[in-house]
Amino acid sequence: MKLKDIGTPVSTVAGVGPSLEKLLARLGIFTVSNLLSYWPKTWEDRTRKIPLSAWKSTSKVHTIAQVLRHDWFGFGRMRTLKIIIDDGTATAALVCFNRSFLEKSLPVGSVIAVTGRFSPRYGELQTSAFEATCLAKSASIDEFLDKPVPGSAVFPIYPLTAGLSQTQLRKIITKALKEYCKGIENELPENIIEKRGLMQKKEAVFCMHQPRDIDTAEKAKYSLIYEELYHFQETILKRSEEHRKTAEKAKKSVDGSKKTFEETLSPRQKQLLARLPFELTEDQKKVIYEMNIDIDLSNNQPDAQCGAVRESETGVLTETEAANPPVKPDEISVNKDGEQPGKNPDRTYPAQFHMARLLQGDVGSGKTLAAFFAALRTVDYGGQCVMMAPTEILARQHANNAAKLLEPLSIKVAFLTGNLKASGRSQLLSALKKGEIDIIIGTHAVFSQAVLYHDLRFVVIDEQHRFGVVQRSAILDKGRQSVVQKEKLTQGIMPRAPDFLLMSATPIPQTLAHTLFGDLDISIIKSMPAGRQPIKTYLTKEGNESRVYEAVRQELKNGHQAYFVYPLIENVDSPEDDTAEQGDTQNNMAAFNSDGGAKTAISTDGTRSTAAGGTGRSDASNAANGGQKSLKSAESMYSFLSQQVYPEFKCALIHSRTDEAEQIAALEAFRKGEIQILVATSVVEVGVDVPNATCMVIEHAERFGLAALHQLRGRVGRGSAASFCFLVYSEKLTELGKARLKVLHESTDGFYIGEEDLKLRGPGDVNGIQQSGYITLGLADPVRDKAILELARADILENLAR
Ligand code: ADP
Ligand code: MG
Fold first, then answer.
1. Would the CB of 361 count as within 6 Å of ligand 1?
2. Which of 466, 605, 614, 742 is the most buried (most CB within 10 A)?
3. Contact in structure between 468 and 588 (CB atoms under 8 Å)
């Protein structure tokens, strides 16, 4: 069986009761497949002895020590045991909060194995987070000097959720491995596995969770990354071939006569143009023109008869199949892979032309408006449109814009998120199904199972890099299952797939575009709307923040507003807690979760909608948590800034865990100018459009990816006033880190930044930095893993040629 097909509920694994089941659900783990592909974010090597004296240079000490004495401190119920140990390199104390029982199991004079994170406190080396076992009740440590520390192994470190421990998770994964691992099949062709020296799939899965040593773990990871990129490239190559064929056929009919831009517009497009208070940029016009051609082609193309589709190689559908569509409408929703197990909707329909376009344009270049134009043309053809945004904040903003711009043209606009209350929701859904709504805007909820369209013909996905590649086919199917399209089937006519437009403000370097988006046509907006001033960017070393704060104060005094952005939500003591702002930056569907930034989004119909397990961007948070307690968090800095630095101004705090209503209220107040300072995490990376804000302060800037920094900076400079971006970096910045920040200092051109980012990134150079953000996969990052990606691509082409 394939790993992804092990759909057995996780509750069947021994030891998983109802409460554990709930915790696992929060991590997006519902099935055994989910559990086994919940990859560790890293491994801890406990195969070597790490003595107490090395406490500073290691995250955990792992040693054998002698118990010298027992001390007690505190009184009554607070009385606490302290075990003093020595391993020959240093003396240290084990503080046993609520673990007085250790008095018996680790007696004075015994030799123990101990693992823990030590740091100096109250004048001694201490730990309160440790594991210890007694090796001999009464012995001399000398007898153990050249023996390995018992319990030596490589331990997987998983991203956790409150209430779940590493030990618990390891235990149940071990059980699941025992029962299911042997039966896992390879998903790569055997000849490829052999040629590239990859692990068998079952071996790779096993070694991710229980590697003998770090090298084995890395090899397992490499094998899985290769597999992921192989399938990714296979999809791209297949789709690009199909798209090329249908486009060639369709474009034969393009009207070649010369017309002005206005003349090519449809009635509602003309009306919108007339209402705009500004001129479209030349690039916006060009993009609208390109999309118009696509939209005309796909709406004017003749119906395909179900009996007449055999010419398509990839999409053969027999007549019986056509009468009984292989994918039942009600089964479809955007799930993990966007595909039903064992079925590939792309393959069950014949190839007909539809727009498949990527619109790239720097932050603030006016992509949304171009998309609205395309939507209007679709509405003029009688079709419905959907615009999906990765966060509720952004979706709401688009909806507000659409209401302002489009409703005066008597277009019906609706807004849908997973949080919509029952009554309003059912009303909205029924209107949508009847065709009373023209354009619906929302989060991924717009694709959930219960949402049925009357005739969905145009899909826009904003900030596409937060959206999985494979989920696309589920979206095409959403269109095919529209009421009108389904009816066609009964008359022997193929349902049509909608046009779709992906928008991205993360410019893809030319050198990568072909590999990553070979299946899409690409449109680019390069020019910015007139009247924008370039943003000034300053690099400031940690320690000089007060100068930044003063510079910002001047702007605030002049009536402007400022953002302060931090990599963490809150400071935590336990390094195993993940509180870095993952919900907003992580490379999976979690990015769509507006329900508080949990790692996994549960779509409204309850299907799991994350990509593989959330190991992707955890590097950043991992490093962020790597024992560095001095890291500033949004919460702590909110208190500091509002009370100490800017008591005369109003501040608000938002991050993905802030209550949704509060987020909206804070943003609204910020927009209205009632609040001058917005302290945030990367939640504000997309979609916040407040022209009066002129300052963007990003502390610990080296912890953000270049793309993210560029996006964040794009939150200012949206009005006509001069704007400033302050990047505060750590004293310990590496050469590479300096080079990266310098790129931002020198340029505000997203395309240039993208190319430089690529050049600066060697393979394997991602520790502490987020993934590239061009595209979302599970373990793989196509930029970091470019070399593997190219191998896989070559292998596919070679296998095809045989
Ligand atoms: P993007 O999504 O590409 O980052 P937006 O679509 O959010 O950019 O546009 C940024 C801002 O610029 C919006 O407030 C929008 O109304 C405005 N805008 C769009 N096109 C133009 C134009 N041609 N001239 C002036 N302002 C524009
Ligand atoms: Mg945008």
1. yes
2. 466
3. yes
